[in-house]
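Q: How would the structure tokens look for this protein?
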Amino acid sequence: MKRFGSANWKGSGKEGTGTTSTQSGVLNNTQYSFNSRFAEGIGTNPEELIAAAHAGCFTMKLSFVLNEAGFTADNIDTKCTITFENGAIVESHLDVTATVPGIDAAKFEACAADAKANCPISKLLNTQISMTAALA
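A: Here is the predicted structure in token form.
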């Protein structure tokens, strides 16, 4: 299976503008710029897209890991925060809270650690990955 995204940029790095699109069409010529990346401008940026991808991938992997351990989550909420400093992504932090009937905190933390280490986006990222995990 292959998936694709694309980007277009016009102009200089600081004054130019770009668009990004995804194969599914969820993003379709979505605007990004220097200001949306490094200030509070309108549009998306690569770091928030990586954060969304990591949160989504981790959350689905956690669901699979819980299933393999004999549990089914009622709900899993994950927020991923990407830290971008000096031109590099230096950390991806996952905050996860879940409602999982019948599981104890230690087993949940072990499942979350497994998902953090083994979701495909975690494996792709060459950075520190930290996490806080709690049952709701």
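The first helix runs from residue 34 to 38.

The chain has a mean pLDDT of 97.

Upvote if useful.
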